[in-house]
């Protein structure tokens, strides 16, 4: 099993600004705080240096015309939501995905590792899995967050537009894809599928910690 990377969460604007070593503590400081500014780092030194600097240097990006983009305009994530993410192992070439309840940071489903998958496929399957979970458990309006624009677009189109070659080695992956596409075709849902704004909110809480 891959070792989870230690992360350091810098909170510039929150209930109690500072540096935190786990997501739950960070979430407590920023949840419900208007204009919260925070971001995760993979080293203590980097986090300490960032905390001394203006948060805009780290969580604002420039758009194509080089104008600073105020990412605080996206607001804060909805507390009562499901967040999904996928991971792909560049060595083993396998994929897995999971979903968590944001308000409790509890994992509600996990699939994999699956050989010969891709990260985008994992993201797509994770969203559909979350939609099915919501329908099964009568969670009909809870939003679902993913940090993959591709996967969100595929779900809306009800089609996994992967470039993965279909073969005997990948047939098990395509079986899951067809099952997910069939579910999307045969089921309606009210759950909003939203983009997790990493630059404004920090790392996706469902991340596997392998970046």
Give a quick summary of the entry.
This protein has 211 residues and is of the alpha+beta class.
Q: In sequence order, what are the helices and strands, one letter per element?
A: EEHEHHEEEEEHEHHEH
The total of beta strands comes to 10
Strand content: 15-25%
The CATH architecture designation of the largest domain is: 2-Layer Sandwich
The CATH topology assignment of the largest domain is Nucleotidyltransferase, domain 5
Low-confidence stretches: 61-69
Report the top-level CATH class of the largest domain. Answer: Alpha Beta
Fraction of residues in H or I helices:
25-40%
CATH superfamily of the largest domain: Ribonuclease H-like superfamily/Ribonuclease H
Average pLDDT metric: 86
Broad shape: globular
Calculate Rg over CA atoms: 18 Å
Total DSSP helices: 7
Overall description:
- The chain is an alpha+beta fold and 211 residues long.
- The protein folds into two domains: 8-60, 3-Layer(aba) Sandwich (Ribonuclease HI, Chain A); 82-201, Nucleotidyltransferase, domain 5, CATH 3.30.420.10.
- It contains seven helices and ten strands.
- A hairpin with a 5-residue loop joins strand 4 and strand 5.
- The model is unreliable at 61-69 (pLDDT under 50).
């Amino acid at each position: 099993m891959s070792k989870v990377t230690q992360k350091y969460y810098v909170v510039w604007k929150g209930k109690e600004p500072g540096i935190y070593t786990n997501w739950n503590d960070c979430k407590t400081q920023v949840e419900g705080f208007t204009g919260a500014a925070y971001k995760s780092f993979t080293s203590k030194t980097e986090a300490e240096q960032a905390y001394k600097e203006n948060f805009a240097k780290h969580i604002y990006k420039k758009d194509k015309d080089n104008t600073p983009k105020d990412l605080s305009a996206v607001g804060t994530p909805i507390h009562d939501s499901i967040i999904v993410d996928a991971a792909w192992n560049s060595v083993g070439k396998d994929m897995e995905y999971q979903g968590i309840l944001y308000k409790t940071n509890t994992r509600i489903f996990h699939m994999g590792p699956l050989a010969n998958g891709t990260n985008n496929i994992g993201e797509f399957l994770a969203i559909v899995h979350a939609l099915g979970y919501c329908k099964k458990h009568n969670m009909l309006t809870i939003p679902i967050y993913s940090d993959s624009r591709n996967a969100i677009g595929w779900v809306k189109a009800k089609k996994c537009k992967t470039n993965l070659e279909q073969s005997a080695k990948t047939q098990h992956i395509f079986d899951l894809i067809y099952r997910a596409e069939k579910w999307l075709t045969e089921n309606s849902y009210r759950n909003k599928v939203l983009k997790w704004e990493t630059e404004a909110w920090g790392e996706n809480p469902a991340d596997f910690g392998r970046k």
